[in-house]
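Protocol step 6 of 9: fold each sequence in the batch and record its structure tokens directly after the sequence line. For illustration, a two-sequence batch is reproduced in full.

Sequence one:
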Amino acid sequence: MRPVTEAELAEAVAGARGPLLVRGGGTRTLGHAVGEVLETSGLTGVELYEPGALTLVVQAGTPVAEVDRVLAAERQRLAFEVPDLRGLLGREGVSTIGGVVAANASGPRWVQVGACRDACLGVRFVDGSGTVVKNGGRVMKNVTGYDLVKLLAGSRGVLGVLSEVSFKVQALPEAEATLVVEGLADEAGLSALRVALGSPFDVSGGARHSGRSLIRVEGMAGSVTYRLGELTARLGGEVRTVEGDASAALWRDVRDVVPLQGKPGDIWRIATLPTAAAEVVARLDGEAVWDWGGGLVWLRLDPGRGAEVAAAVAGRGHATLVKGQGGSVFPPEAAEVAALAAGIKAKFDPRGIFNPGMMG
């Protein structure tokens, strides 16, 4: 099924007689969900764009590339830096903005501006009964009640099918530059990232791979130059500066996990304490791309090492198998958390038709 209006989407859900596999462009799907495919890619188009108010409202099936083009024409962007994981996961297709929100897909700038959910102002979605629900709006404000925007972002379609999302957007900076720190072992290289991110110099990226630590600064040209100088004085190792398009290319590689693309083995996404990141990787002895100052680790391992990964991150994070065969994709939940999640699921999808098996 591929509805092209919100009314058609609601009708399709209300009339469903079995499980539905909710899908945008199919570029971020994880888990073992089954059912009749319900595509949102027919719901396309920009509903409202006010550059002066930094506000964008767009239908959920709109391609991310189209959103980027619209914003770039006004020298603006989605601040949370949407990852393109097709190369990593071996997928084709077109990434949709609803899929981005459903996965809470967030790139290296998370350390400065937060995740996708932090940029979402409002959502419209269809719940398991076929009812259209609206939450949030077109401006950021504090209200009482349930924040369904935050709940839907990252829910991977198990609570409802997104039909429209609204965002606060960001102006493109005047300048961008990256400090590349070489000559440091992993622990020291990650420590350099933590020093930079803990400084007052508004770092917008802290990552490491291939023996290099990367520290990004963006903003007005004069400010960028000043902050680069101050940061360089605080870092060890061999430091060089990369600017402009060359800097942007470095961060596309981090964002899309290019160093691990096209290589054999399982790919794990590990969220952990930045101070524990080097130890976790050393214990598992895999090839890593560290982002978020070490708080996010993309790790390539031989297949079948799920139990070792779980033991390595126990008590200090969680791991998701994003590419590989067999076993559970998502980490197990504590009994209390699982009960809470089941209760929420029952409220929004009482028939249990949305993406059954997705989180298993």
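Sequence two, same batch, same settings:
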Amino acid sequence: MAIIEVKSVKKVFKKPVRKPGIIGMFKTLFSLKYDLIEAVKNISFSLEPGEIVGYIGANGAGKSTTIKMMCGILTPTEGEILVEGYHPYHPKQRRHVLNKIGVVFGQRTQLWWDLPLIESLIILKQIYDVSNQDYKDRFDFLNKVLDLEPFLSQPVRTLSLGQRMRADLAASLIHNPKVLFLDEPTIGLDVLVKDRMIKAIKEINKTYETTIILTTHNMDDITDLCHRIIILDEGSILYDGSINLIKKKFGDIRHIRFFSSQEIDLQLLKTKIGHDVDVEIQNGYIELSFDIEKISINQVLKTILNDYVVDDIHIKENSLESIVKKIYETRQI
């Protein structure tokens, strides 16, 4: 049974039509004229227990609006959302849903700014009515995977960004929610802290089978954590499926970048390899992109290494970032 169901959901915002100037501002207060902005357009999907799903899209695509509706902050204009069979935005059902979800916003904190972290966690224990034994088990686990011990007694306002993000993740999980919403959880983090966060999220999902919805612009996070992605554009779903499937759909592309001290005629290089290869220069490196179903890697490497002096060379697969960028540009799957 799906833990989250989004059924034909629309969200329309009313924006007052405002005329310029101070007089126009006052007229707006009494005006009945509105522009209707359709932030989410008839979207449907469901999430199974234990899934980690990447929910991605450009700024203004409707990601945050959807997340807020799933959390109960906003009410759909049309359609319905069910979390474990309950409507998160219904006044009489909201409390049940709130006990089942956790939320981490990269730019906001749910912790008490002047209190030590440990006291914030104890307050959340009381709010969610977590038993002493469950709290101890949960705290010990989170302390281990997130390494909270060094800053448990520090006021939240004194924590570094990386420490605060780990603290926020712990706070959102102290009541063992079945669903966790992560909005840019690694934004601004250095490489080591980010790696720790990714490992912690994987461990949390594995241990508690927590369903996780991840929104981020960092495609590396999506690739590291998710098997399924939902791509949203201008309020509509462009793609809902596995990462592997979308990579196959756009071709098994390889990119070979190499640096040569000798002068290279790009057109001649392209002619030698074949017309199914794209050649360009980026930051002094020559980059060749091609579908390995049409041209073999061996053929390309043989041409490069036999005919040119190569000082440095790299090979990489088609990235999810480049695929998503292409989808945004063409608005097609």
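Proceed to step 7 once all outputs are recorded. Observation for sequence two: DSSP finds twelve helices and 13 strands in the chain.
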